[in-house]
Design brief:
heterodimer, A: about 190 residues, alpha+beta, 6-stranded antiparallel β-sheet, 7 strands, B: alpha+beta, Beta-Lactamase, Arc Repressor Mutant, subunit A, 5-stranded antiparallel β-sheet, about 60% helix
């Protein structure tokens, strides 16, 4: 499992306006736990997570296997793919066979030898905004069921909730100097 | 022109704003955890109980009224699969609670509320069991090893979510409760082990003896456990 802390920091900055080292370290570890279990619990071969950065471009934040790494890297580079489309569609995009999908020919050309066939991209919501997506990958052609889509959405909601908690932690850390141990009776001034 | 700023008032205001916003994070995390659990595992319902400062489990969240009944029945009687999950810090499964003779008071209290198969797994924060995550089915369920393993894995996600949420809202009551549970679980476990050896009783009985001693002396269970380990005696013992 690989976490790109720089990409994560960019996304967190977009969400909070700042990102502290301590909060980043905590979030990175907890996101690793959550994403690391995703493939097993969703019954797929591997997963990846893309999050928006300050320029509203999706960036790879976490992957659990080489196929997902290749898929996310190609989507990030080309800005084409189900993980890009899901940002605009704001709903699950499921692709039974990437090789047969006319919309994603350029993407397939990049990942054809990487073990990617079936892809399900699920939006990650934070409050009312789609801030990224969770991509489930199968090495074989796969007809995604409604139950799998619902499970994917439920799992992506956990990722979103983790990001919400992280943004609160970052804000709390940022506010800490002003809120900790104020000098009783002292009155500061600012010009 | 000089602008006067009162740091104490400003700090108090910020703390008030933080209190307004923060409690939702932990509660939302718990709700997301059980909601996703039902969807992922195809269960009838799911709930979470978390330990308080007295070592008692408390209701935290449930997906539906039946799950809440399941938790309430265990909290009222002090027994049940999820109580054992927390006390023993291990998964506990019951294929059918109505043919399971381990928790008679719990089953009687539950009174045919549409629960049959129950599986509970510990929720751990920082490696310490702080509560239990439970799922149920309304029919008999012979829980497979892979189901136990998968729910245990899912509980790790719960631990990650709650850790992040506690980090975010350290001032809330529930976050304080969890922090206490983490801090005091180790001496409580050692105290339970001491009583098991000293009194030659089982883990559940030892835990209940420790908890009863804490209640009757109106002290926190962690403090009573620490004293037990230092003095060899529970409050009131000679």
């Amino acid at each position: 499992m690989a976490i790109d802390e720089q990409a994560l920091a960019r996304s967190l900055r977009e969400l909070t306006g700042s990102a502290t080292g301590g909060a980043m370290h905590t979030l990175s570890h907890q996101l690793g736990v959550v994403v690391g279990a995703a493939a097993e619990l969703l019954g797929v071969d591997c997963v990846g997570v893309l999050l928006l950065d300050e320029a509203d471009r999706v960036r790879t934040v976490a992957v659990t296997g080489p196929a997902a790494a290749a898929l996310e890297s190609a989507q990030e580079r080309l800005q084409i793919g189900p993980g890009v489309d899901v940002q605009g569609f704001r709903q699950v995009v499921s692709v039974p066979d990437l090789a047969e999908h006319p919309r994603y020919r350029a993407l397939w050309h990049e990942v054809a030898d990487s073990g990617v066939r079936g892809v399900m991209s699920v939006p990650v919501w934070v409050r009312q905004e789609v801030v990224g997506n969770l991509n489930a990958v199968t090495e074989q052609v796969h007809a995604w069921s409604d139950a799998e889509r619902r499970a994917g959405e439920a799992y992506a909601a956990l990722v979103g909730q983790l990001l919400i908690a992280a943004t609160h932690a970052v804000r709390r850390d940022s506010a800490a100097p002003e809120t900790v141990a104020p000098d009783p009776g002292a009155r500061g001034s600012a010009r | 022109m000089t602008t006067e700023i009162d740091p104490a008032a400003l700090g108090a205001s910020l703390r008030r704003l933080q209190k307004q916003r923060e409690p939702a994070v932990l509660e939302q995390s718990l709700e997301q955890l059980v909601t996703a659990c039902v969807e992922l595992f195809g269960m009838g319902g799911s709930g979470v109980m978390l330990a308080d400062e007295g070592g008692d489990l408390r209701y935290a969240v449930a997906t539906d009224p039946t799950s809440q009944e399941l938790e309430d029945a265990q909290l009222d009687t002090g027994q049940g699969p999820c109580v054992d999950t927390y006390v023993n810090d291990e998964p506990v499964a019951s294929a059918d609670i109505y043919t399971d003779d381990r928790w008679p008071k719990f089953v009687e209290r539950l009174d045919q509320k549409g629960v049959r198969g129950v599986l509970g797994v510990p929720i751990r924060l920082a490696g310490v069991a702080v509560g239990s995550l439970d799922v149920f089915r309304d029919e008999r369920r012979d829980w497979s090893t892979s189901e136990r393993d998968a729910l245990t894995r899912y509980a790790e996600i719960g631990g990650a979510l709650l850790t992040a949420a506690v980090t975010a809202e350290q001032s809330s009551e529930l976050a304080t409760q969890l922090s206490y549970a983490i801090e005091h679980r180790a001496p409580i476990e050692r105290g339970v082990g001491y009583l098991m050896a000293r009194d030659r009783i089982g883990q559940n009985d030892a835990f209940n003896r420790l908890r009863t001693a804490a209640r009757s002396s109106r002290r926190k269970i962690g403090d009573v456990a620490r004293d037990l380990l230092c003095t060899g005696r529970l409050p009131g013992e000679r």
